[in-house]
Design goal:
Layout: H1 2-8, H2 19-39, H3 46-53, H4 57-60, H5 62-81, H6 87-104, H7 111-139, H8 142-173, H9 176-197, H10 211-222, H11 225-253, H12 261-267, H13 271-284, H14 290-307, H15 313-341, H16 346-375, H17 377-400
Helix pairs in contact: 2-6, 2-7, 2-8, 2-9, 5-7, 5-16, 6-7, 6-9, 7-8, 7-16, 8-9, 8-12, 8-13, 8-15, 11-15, 11-16, 11-17, 13-15, 14-15, 14-17, 16-17
């Protein structure tokens, strides 16, 4: 009888095909939709912000970089405090509070204030990102973890794609403020649904956090070469990725393409290939070691960039597709490696991964705008190729270790 009691006291992790697994994957997918639709709200309308606030492309990128910088700062804070908070309640609060700030941005007519609100929104959204992967690794069985992570990252990709396309279309036909209303209301609905459907944690109990112990834990991670190398590779690769999507609109609306806004919006359909990249890499990583698999995805990122140097629309679209597919595949594999290498303190390890990831988005995403403005598209792409090469060398060294 005692043996049965012990078995019952240890809940089984969610297996693929179970009702609990379906509710987890669907809810976590929706959280990815909300986070990325809000995080990159202003990315497709940077040219409109330039005109309304009379600023340069590099300055306009701060509307995006402020959000991702806020995300990085929030992730650092949550890397210290996340284990003291219930996973579900933290993610749900972040989704709802960020939606309110998105709606608030509709009424702002001062660019520095818009940047400040974007920073706070990014910091709040980090509450989802800080613990989502930790929640999955705790609640989902090992055999289904690759699928669960790929679905979460697919939600990120679809949220990024749908947000960009819808925002660009609404902004082109009305203005960016109505687009922000749509994203804010949609995110509010998704947050309410998330709170209702996501199962509460069975394998995690909030406990008081010893800050000094967390610092020691971070020190342990920063003494693990594999984890450190992947952190810095994520910074470089994410910087290249966000740079492309920050400034593609500027490039496509200028000669030789001279495309209207509704055609440029369709370019963001390439994010569907990002979803495919997460699914393919996630499934393959259940069979092939992620450290080996990732070496094939990063060179493909560089191939995509090279295709975007060709001044023909078909070649540019093909390059953007290859670039997006390969980046999301790389990101999925990097996330899985971190979750596996961190035997303890998974939420801290994944929070630090996202911190480097979004720091790259904020710092590199704005710096490359200066390169584009000063030296043009070809030098801009060349600078991104150097970032990708750096990321590949870091990942290659990590794989050897």
């Amino acid at each position: 009888m005692a043996e049965k009691t012990n078995v019952a006291a240890t809940p089984i992790r969610a297996e693929r095909g179970s009702l609990r697994f379906r509710r987890i994957k669907n809810s976590i997918f929706l959280s990815g939709l909300s986070v990325f639709a809000q995080l990159y709200l202003f990315q497709p309308v940077l040219p409109l912000l330039c005109k309304e606030f009379d600023i340069t492309p590099a300055a306009s990128s701060w509307a995006v970089s402020a959000s991702t910088l806020g995300m990085a700062v929030g992730l650092f804070i949550f890397s210290l405090k996340a284990d003291a908070l219930p996973r579900k309640q933290l993610m749900g609060f972040a989704m709802l509070a960020s939606a309110v700030l998105t709606l608030l941005s509709v009424f702002i007519h001062n660019f520095p204030l818009l940047i400040a609100v974007s920073f706070v929104r990014g910091a709040i959204l980090s509450g989802v990102t800080a613990v989502a992967l930790a929640y999955l690794s705790e609640e989902v069985s090992t055999g289904a973890l690759g699928l669960a992570i790929s679905l979460y990252l697919s939600g990120n990709a679809i949220g990024g794609m749908a947000g960009r396309i819808i925002v660009m279309l609404i902004a082109g036909w009305a203005n960016w403020r109505w687009a922000a209303v749509f994203v804010g209301v949609s995110s509010l609905v998704l947050g309410l649904f998330f709170m209702k459907r996501l199962p509460a944690s069975k394998h995690f109990t909030p406990h008081p956090v010893n800050i000094s112990y967390k610092w020691q834990q971070m020190g342990v991670f920063f003494r693990q070469p594999v984890i450190v190398l992947i952190y810095f590779a994520a910074l470089l690769l994410m910087g290249a990725f966000v740079s492309i999507y920050n400034y593609t609109g500027f490039h496509l609306e200028a000669p030789p393409f001279s495309l209207p806004h509704y055609v440029i919006a369709c370019i963001f359909l390439m994010y569907t290939l990002g979803v495919l990249g997460t699914m393919v890499s996630g499934r393959l990583s259940d069979k092939i070691a992620p450290a080996k698999l990732i070496r094939f995805f990063i060179p493909a990122i560089a191939v995509g960039l090279l295709l975007m140097l060709i001044p023909q629309l078909v070649a540019f679209i093909a390059g953007l597709g290859v670039f997006t597919f390969s980046f999301f595949g790389t990101h999925t594999l990097s996330s899985r490696i971190i979750s596996q290498e961190a035997r303890e303190g998974k939420s801290t390890a994944t929070s630090l991964y996202w911190l480097f990831y979004y720091a790259g988005s904020a710092i590199v995403g704005t710096a490359t705008g200066v390169v584009l403005t000063g030296w043009g598209w070809d030098i801009f792409i060349s600078s991104l190729l150097l970032l990708v090469l750096g990321g590949f060398l870091l990942i290659f060294r990590a794989g050897r270790k």
